[in-house]
């Protein structure tokens, strides 16, 4: 009888600890993905997303404020990003804000950076707005241009010889 009660106590303790750990892990993942906060939806249209994936971070002036929730390709030139941004931060983002895709460190994942615009009296964004975008020159484009330049230089030097 004593062994049975000790066994039941151990199993009960194991179940309680496992449940607490599971809840803690789910909460930490949800907090990181901004699931438990009030969010608004913003949209941004790009012609190249440079390896961005759903779940990547959205930053406003360097602060993590949300995540990329959906990526939809409309046609060959237009890719729409749906961004989930915390409602409490949205009051700082104005209609003239500009979004661009950047890297998180040297070899990190891609992030959507939103920078404030220059207008002082711009209206605050609301859920469903589309913000302006800026496409930076990617390293693939630079390498392609450099390769073409090298080929042209090789042709010129061979002609000179």
Structure description:
With 161 residues, this protein is of the alpha/beta class. It is 35% helix and 29% strand. The protein has three helices and seven strands. It has helices at residues 2-32, 87-90, 139-160; strands at 39-46, 57-60, 63-73, 79-86, 98-103, 110-115, 130-133. It has a seven-stranded mixed beta barrel with strand order 1-4-3-2-6-5-7. A hairpin with a 2-residue loop joins strand 2 and strand 3. The mean pLDDT is 84.
Task: Give a brief outline of the structure.
By secondary structure, the chain is an alpha/beta fold. The protein has helices at 2-32, 87-90, 139-160; strands at residues 39-46, 57-60, 63-73, 79-86, 98-103, 110-115, 130-133.
Tally of separate domains: 2
What does the largest sheet look like? 7 strands, mixed, barrel
List unreliable stretches of 5+ residues. none
What's the total number of strands?
7
Fraction in helix = 25-40%
> Helical segment tally?
3
What's the oligomerization state?
single chain
Placed side by side, the strands forming the largest sheet appear as 1-4-3-2-6-5-7
Q: Kindly name the structural category.
A: alpha/beta
What letter string, H or E per element, gives the SSE order? HEEEEHEEEH
Shape: flat
State the end-to-end CA separation.
99 Å
- The percentage of residues in β strands lies in 25-35%
Keywords:
35% helix; seven-stranded mixed β-barrel; alpha/beta
Element layout with pairings:
Blueprint (H helix, E strand, L loop, with lengths): L1 H31 L6 E8 L10 E4 L2 E11 L5 E8 H4 L7 E6 L6 E6 L14 E4 L5 H22 L1
Parallel strand pairs: 1-7, 2-6, 5-7
Antiparallel strand pairs: 1-4, 2-3, 3-4, 5-6
């Amino acid at each position: 009888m004593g062994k049975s009660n000790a066994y039941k106590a151990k199993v009960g303790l194991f179940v309680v600890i496992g449940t607490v750990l599971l809840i803690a892990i789910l909460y930490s993942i949800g907090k990181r993905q901004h699931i438990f906060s009030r969010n608004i939806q913003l949209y941004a249209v790009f012609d190249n997303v440079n390896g961005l994936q759903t779940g990547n971070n959205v930053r406003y002036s360097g602060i993590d404020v949300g995540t990329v929730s959906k990526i939809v390709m409309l046609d060959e030139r237009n890719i729409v990003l749906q961004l989930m941004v915390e409602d409490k931060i949205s009051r700082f983002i104005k209609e003239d804000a500009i979004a661009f895709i950047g890297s998180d460190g040297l070899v990190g994942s891609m992030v959507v950076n939103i920078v404030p615009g220059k207008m002082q009296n711009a209206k605050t964004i609301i859920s469903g707005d589309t913000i302006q975008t800026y496409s930076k020159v990617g390293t693939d484009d630079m390498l392609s241009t450099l390769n073409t330049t090298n080929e042209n230089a090789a042709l010129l030097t061979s002609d000179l010889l």
